[in-house]
Specification:
Blueprint lengths: L15 H22 L6 H7 L4 H7 L3 H24 L5 H18 L1 H13 L7 H22 L8 H22 L5 H13 L5 H9 L1
Helix pairs in contact: 1-2, 1-4, 1-6, 4-5, 4-6, 5-6, 5-8, 5-9, 7-8, 8-9
């Protein structure tokens, strides 16, 4: 006879690693279905069937459609951070590391367009949230890029301009490029998009002679 203490809801794996893998599978499937069908039209039964679970088992992990949707967006942002760090952490030069991070960011969303769709849907459906999941993650991790920029300024490799202002401009450029590519269809590869940002935004659009001329005015 099972006691209340020993009871497990249907479909719950005994092994914590299997439970982690199942949650990963649920979130991956949810991201694709939500992106394809939209939040309102998505039926959790479809997500459950995609990975061979019952709807009851799905509800064990995520008790509502809202909680599953927001968890799927959060999952995407964690994967983004992992993708950026996997590439950039191997680069010792800080300026090159910044360039690799931009390339990895644009490549991630090119390869995983479902998470762009989820970001759009989150903004449309949950407008009362003070901060979207994307910006929650950005603000939680911006310190490392702030430190990197500050180090480049201290080393004399970047002009002495406000670090947060530089990060805001660069972040807006990368963020906007990602959405533009998604909406219009990427006419350039993520690598070429990143190269243009690095060349124009980081390198500057003015020639040294023109920059001296502007400074003299």
């Amino acid at each position: 006879m099972k006691t209340a203490h020993s009871y497990r809801p249907p479909g719950r794996p005994k092994d914590p690693e299997r439970a982690r893998q199942r949650k990963h599978a649920i979130l991956e499937a949810a991201a694709i279905v939500f992106a394809r069908s939209g939040y309102d039209a998505t039926d959790l039964e479809e997500i459950a069937q995609t990975i061979g679970l019952s709807k009851a088992a799905l509800y064990y992990y995520y008790p509502s459609k809202e909680s599953l949707f927001l968890a799927a967006v959060d999952h995407g942002m964690k994967l983004l951070r992992q993708a950026v760090h996997t590439v950039s952490r191997e680069v010792s030069d800080p300026l090159q590391r910044l360039g690799e991070a931009i390339r990895a960011y644009l490549r991630f969303f090119h390869d995983h367009p479902q998470f762009v769709e989820l970001m759009i849907q989150e903004r449309a459906v949950f407008r009362d949230r003070k901060k979207s999941t994307y910006f929650e993650h950005r603000d939680a991790n911006v310190h490392e890029w702030r430190d990197l920029i500050a180090g480049l300024i201290q080393a004399g490799r970047v002009r002495k301009i406000p670090v947060d202002g530089l990060l805001n401009v660069l972040g807006a450029q990368v963020y906007g490029t990602m959405f533009t590519a998604h909406f219009t269809g990427a006419r350039q590869s993520p690598e070429q998009q990143a190269a243009d940002i690095i060349d124009i935004v980081i390198g500057g659009m003015l020639t040294p002679a023109e920059r001296r001329k502007q400074s003299a005015r």
